[in-house]
Design goal:
The protein is an alpha+beta fold and about 190 residues long. It folds into 2 domains: about 100 residues, no CATH class; about 55 residues. About 45% of the residues lie in helices and about 15% in strands. A 4-stranded antiparallel β-sheet has the order 1-4-3-2. A hairpin with a 5-residue loop joins strand 3 and strand 4. Helix 5 crosses helix 6. The protein starts with 10 loop residues before the first helix and ends with a helix.
């Protein structure tokens, strides 16, 4: 999901107990912009409505024309404010302070997704159908795991040699940047 988007929790999400917690960009919603400046409280429940240009598409998709969400403000270790948008509306049950822990957990997921997108070429699909995209995702995740196994083993062997490098820098295994080509071959 892009950093400037909000996942849309529908009634289906609530009945299945699927909730969202996403980063809110500094250019997104008025309430979020104010909170990023340090104004107001750490939690606000707002009703979002689509702009005129998106209204027709939202109607076509039979999605709700308004959406109640909660903005929660947290202070990062850098001292900066971050505003998160969530479908968790109950402020007593889900205090904004807990969102920081959840926000910190996303780091590893975003890093892995970035790896899949960029270095492994996940967005360059071999076909346009759902099955082709599904196969590409599975192949990319499989090759990523295989690469980790191979490079970790090779790095352990290098580290075990205990040979001091001539230039003062340690030796590192270079990871493969040809995985998109390999994915097409499997």
């Amino acid at each position: 999901m892009a950093r400037n988007t909000v996942s849309i929790p529908t009634p289906w999400h609530r009945c299945c107990r699927l909730y969202s917690l996403d980063r809110c960009s500094a250019t997104s919603f008025k309430a979020a912009r104010s909170m990023l400046k340090g104004e107001g409280g750490d939690s606000q429940i707002v009703t979002l409505t689509p702009c005129a240009e998106q209204r027709r598409e939202i109607k076509r998709l039979n999605l709700p024309l308004s959406l109640r969400v909660r903005f929660g403000r947290v202070r990062l270790s850098t001292g900066e404010w971050e505003v998160l948008v969530t479908s968790l509306l109950d402020q007593a049950r889900y205090p904004s302070a807990q969102f920081l822990e959840l926000y910190d957990l996303r780091g590893g997921i975003e890093t892995f997704y970035g790896l899949l997108k960029t270095r492994l070429g996940l967005e360059n699909f071999s076909g346009t159908g759902a099955e082709a995209v599904k196969q590409d995702v599975y192949a990319t995740v499989y090759l990523s795991g295989l690469e980790s196994l191979l490079t970790d083993s090779a790095q352990a062997q290098l580290d075990a040699k205990n040979t001091p490098p001539a230039n003062g820098q340690s030796c590192r295994v270079v990871q493969c940047y040809q995985i998109p080509s390999l994915r097409l071959a499997i």
